[in-house]
Amino acid sequence: MARQRAKQHGRLEDGYTLLELLVVLGIIAALSAIVAPRVIGYLGQAKSDAGRAQLANVQSALELYYLDTGTYPTGDQGIDALTQAPANIASWRGPYLKKDSGLLDPWGKKFVYAQPGEHGPFDLSSLGRDGKIGGDGEDSDLVSW
Fold first, then answer.
1. Distance of CA 35 to CAs 26, 38, 42, 43, 46, Å?
2. Are 127 and 141 a contacting pair, CB within 8 Å?
3. Is pLDDT of 3 > 60?
4. Is residue 61 in a domain?
5. Helix (H, G, I), strand (E, B) or coil at 135
6. Are 82 and 94 in contact (CB under 8 A)?
7. Which range marks the domain in which residue 95 is found?
8. Total domain count, the chain
9. CATH of the domain at 85
10. What average pLDDT does range 68-82 have in this prediction?
11. Residue 103 and residue 15: Cα distance in Å, rounded?
């Protein structure tokens, strides 16, 4: 009877039981266990895709450097020559990349540059997430050739 009076006066509060909360938490945990590995895989693939795009951007900058100077940066100058004028290069019209961060792969390591290259006038690559030659997935190397 007291319960009925409290309900009539709006004092009885509706709420969730502990069991209902545990069921909802269980569903959220199950969904997280299924979705999380896929999302992490997509993030890894996104970094590799971004690395390929950045590699192509640095290649284009190297070609612009070549058009202006008639040579590619030497191995000693490296790709830093795309953002800072090397000594004794009067025809340098850079910077060919806006920021020094353009010289880094998505994992924060500088692209590997060799001139002359084994596969062309220059070789440009990233060693992937692990920083080692070879690998699979996000650890695989990105190359310009």
1. 14, 5, 11, 13, 17
2. yes
3. no
4. yes
5. coil
6. yes
7. 16-143
8. 1
9. 3.30.700.10
10. 93
11. 57
What residue type is assigned to position 143 of the chain? V
The per-residue pLDDT for 137 is 76
Q: Assess if residue 36 is contained within a domain.
A: yes
Q: How many residues appear in the chain?
A: 145
Compute CA 68 distance to the chain's CA centroid, rounded to the nearest angstrom. 30
- 5 band by pLDDT with thresholds 50, 70 and 90: low
Cβ atoms 135, 93 nearer than 8 A: no
What the block records as the tokens of 20 is 């209902």
Task: Give yes or no for residue 81 having a pLDDT over 90.
Answer: yes
The reply to whether 99 falls in a domain is: yes
Name which of 29-43, 92-106, 115-129 the model is least confident about. Answer: 29-43
18-43 residue pLDDT tens? 999 999 999 999 888 888 777 776 77
Q: Read off the tokens for 16.
A: 């969730």
Q: What pLDDT shows up at residue 62?
A: 96
Whether residue 11 is contained in a domain is answered as no
User: How many Cα atoms sit within 13 Å of 58 on the Cβ side?
Assistant: 30
Query: Which is nearest to 95 in space by CA: 104, 86, 106?
Result: 86
By the 10 Å C-beta count (0-12 exposed, 13-18 middle, 19+ buried), 79 is classed as: buried
